[in-house]
Amino acid sequence: MKKKATLIIALAAAFSCTAAFAGPADSSRWTIDGDYAIRWDIGNDIPHYDHIEMSGEQVSVVYRYGVNEDGSFSMDRSVVWPMLRTVPNDTHASLTVHFDTDFMSGVTVDGKALEGEKVRSITLDGIMSVLSTYGNAPVEVTECYFPSPTRAAVCERYTITNTGDNEISVFVPAVRNVTETDPEAGTEGSYTLIASTGSGIDRSYRIAPGESISFGATIRGLKQPQMEIPIDVDREKAEREDFVKTICGELVLESPDPVLNTMFGFSKIRGAESIFATRGGLMQCPGGEAYYAAIWCNDQAEYINPFFPFLGYDKGNESAVNSFLHFAAYMNPDFNFIPWSVIAEGYESHGPFDRGDAAMLAYGASRYALAMGDLQIAETLMPLIDWSLEYCSRKINSEGVVASDADELELRFPAGEANLCTSSLYYDALRSTAWLIETMADEYAADGKSAESSAAADEAASRAAELRERAATLKGNIEKYFGADMDGFHTYRYFKGNDVLRSWICIPLVMDIFDRKEGTVQALLSPILWSENGVYTEAGTDVFWDRATLYALRGIYAAGYPEKATEHLAAYSRHRLLGEHVPYPVEAWPEGDQRHLSTENALYCRIFTEGILGFRPTGFRTFNLRPQLPENWDYFNISNIHACSSLPYDILVKRSGKKLSVTVRQEGKTLASYNIREGESIEVTM
């Protein structure tokens, strides 16, 4: 059996991670097990330990699990309650507690404690399921671990099956451990933490051959004097399964590579589950035992918010609008920089310097408004977009690019007085806002207010032209200021004076700046920058942040190199989905020890929507497509897309000789079909 349960209280502190660093010899420990599931069949390659984060509206949990050398199961749960705030109430003030409680420790079969555990398999499919047998009893035990979708609790379900030929007796003792936290350490006093089985009394069962019994357990957190309302673990499990099924049924990827299809599904789950019901409304949060009940200009506004309209997840879209409005509250007439994060359920902020956050906000909000296709939402976001564009305009330096104190890495690496990311984001925001202004004018015209709409259309056309002119000027200045030959590659320097290749040279490619695409792609995929874990942050280091790799892969597709992009995407995806640390993109290494932050998952999905498919919103009901398929792919489909449409639709790409056949279908009917050259752009109107 597992070691005796202990409880360690660690307020707002991260637990040391034991997952091994995935190296180049990393093999496929896991296999794909049906739709959106992977399984590890335990062999001789033990011990092995890993960690995975799962989230619900009121709780998040990092399961540190593994199989010991003797074949037994190891589990530690780091449970985070984002709305149980600790002192001081800062970014990291979510109550975090480690539990290694073993709810099976007192179970007996025919009067004997279970011994000689051998884990047979572990399955991940939005729920962790562990199948074990024991050396001294004819039983199989399946343990299921998952967060409650809506309650401040993590849930576990244990099923004991009689695999023998005779009836057995099973005793399941009641477990109940209650802890009251230090009242001085909580913003609302003491919190009550309860680890317990579902039954408050000991129970005995007789199980016939082939039959099973189940019992549930929960770890919950309560504010005082909240009542302890019973939790039906079976119902919670069904709701978790329904959530996973719903998310996996929208924005469905079909490619010839099952690894990509499966990881795409997992990424949707992780991005969508990490949304918390805070006092400040729904907040999509990065997670990682550190970042909850808070939002960031890069993680939310730039990375995941523009993705939610594609997924069509109502809670995701509500959280996106809510995040933009929280940042909008910090607009000011003096154009001082907006804080980079709004924390503590929306009641505090953090950000001591400018990371280019206004460019992130303008980029994300303008793309989001276009993809949502909702005039009211666009009107709500326009003040923030306008303010952010004006802020960036005021930060343009004497050489025509946007100055900022840092970038999203917050001075972990140098970024100079003006960096490539900030100017590239601003460039894209100018282009998206021009389209947004035009489509809003079209909506006003459709209302039938002829006199007003005519004047509005003229004004919109004038402003859109002015924004496009500014974008064109900025594009030229980006080339002049950042364009450079680095280590023999015709690419970019990240800032003035930079003489070392950086991962973010990929950012112009994502923003449709292709002046130096060949040299940039060569540099990104060279041994100087590329590794088995993707792109290094800076040449000469072993530091990597997956967000840069995910941007780079999207940019390489956009630049027209689908063969190279697919080769590296496939290797990266197999490494992350089926290797030693699964099943999601990670934040970084060595910082955070490869935490499963949530918003990187949106960046993974955007490789397919914006990279391979080349989807670019240009209006509430219009978008451009520029499909890029590798030669050995005969098809590429994404179904149940919600962006730029009131109803979901499918986009099907099929190789037809030397051309691509592109079909847009909605409700079983073909809306449009095209026969195009590889990399050719088409405009679709829904």
UniProtKB/TrEMBL annotation:
The keyword Magnesium does not apply. One of its GO terms (biological process) is carbohydrate metabolic process. Residues 1-22 form the signal peptide. Coiled coil: none annotated. InterPro entries: 6-hairpin_glycosidase_sf, 6hp_glycosidase-like_sf. Keywords: Signal. This is Alpha-L-rhamnosidase six-hairpin glycosidase domain-containing protein. It comes from Candidatus Cryptobacteroides avicola.
